[in-house]
Specification:
12 helices; Four Helix Bundle (Hemerythrin (Met), subunit A); single chain; 281 residues
């Protein structure tokens, strides 16, 4: 396997950059390799990504296969479908250049040969619609559940029409609406959270003045959103901000099919986390 591919996998494991943030500390790295069937690697406290890259280089073919399969396993994400989907998406992007992908049969990962093509005329992969959650069953304030369901459908129509910028903006607004709805269901928790936004006098701002960034941080602080979902939600927020043309001019960002695919999974993961909070109330 090419060294650049191993480096991407190392970044994936460590959670650096935009990759999936799972194994941050020395003990987590060591525990992961043990779960992957390679217990001989014990992190020595050195730079994490460099250490992981060296460990991957030292793996035999069978050991490396075990590491990759563990990264793709739903067991690694406590059976969360959305988180597993995000992991598979990012992992297969790293593996694409090697001519194979990792798939799931039930909960068991396996490898599949694929045709590698960088032909700009090749058709883009189809984005399959995700099943919408039952927003009406989440007991939000009257009317908001139907609006969120409508935005879910509208986001999919934008994806189908290859209107990827519009799709990401709608997805971001959907996430913001749901987060606001959860804050309003649990106002005491939200307003007393240490991450709640405050004015110059230290008073918590009313909910309608909260930014999406603040709502994401509060939701994570209150354990409504997992750390991984929080990080990806902030990335989705950045794309939502492209609703302002000058923001897109400055950042030169241009969402594409791959961006939308990941954003869909982020929305689903966030909805799953928030739905668990609402149903447990």
């Amino acid at each position: 396997m090419d060294d650049s591919t191993l480096d991407k996998i190392a970044e994936f494991i460590c959670g650096n950059g935009e990759q999936y943030p799972v194994y941050r500390s020395s003990s987590y790295l060591t525990a992961f390799f043990e779960r992957a069937g390679v217990p001989r690697f014990v992190h020595d406290g050195s730079t994490r990504q460099r250490w992981v890259l060296d460990a991957l280089r030292a793996c035999s073919r069978e050991e490396l296969a075990g590491v990759i399969k563990r990264l793709a396993s739903p067991k690694e994400y406590q059976g969360d479908k959305a988180k597993t989907g995000i992991a598979l998406k990012l992992l297969n992007e790293a593996l694409y250049i090697e001519g194979f992908a990792v798939r799931l049969k039930g909960v068991e990962p396996y490898f599949e040969r694929i045709t590698v093509s960088f032909d700009p005329e090749a058709p883009e992969a189809e984005l399959k619609p995700l099943p919408p959650p039952d927003f009406l069953a989440l007991r939000l304030e009257p009317g908001i559940g139907q609006l969120l369901a409508d935005r879910w459908s509208e986001a999919q129509r934008c994806v189908d029409a290859k209107a990827f910028l519009a799709a990401n903006i709608v997805m971001g607004s959907l996430l913001e609406g749901l987060l606001l709805g959860v804050c309003q269901r649990f106002p005491r928790d939200a307003n007393t959270c240490a991450a709640a936004p405050r004015d110059k006098e230290g008073k918590v701002l009313p909910f309608h003045q909260w930014s999406l960034s603040s709502m994401i941080d509060v939701a994570h602080h209150l354990n409504w959103l997992g750390l991984d979902v929080k990080k990806f939600s902030h990335a989705l927020r950045d794309f939502r901000n492209l609703i302002h043309p000058y923001e897109q001019l400055v950042t030169r960002a241009s969402p594409d099919a791959d961006t939308c695919s990941i954003s869909w999974l982020v929305v689903q993961a966030a909805v799953n986390d928030l739905a668990r909070t609402l149903r447990g109330a």
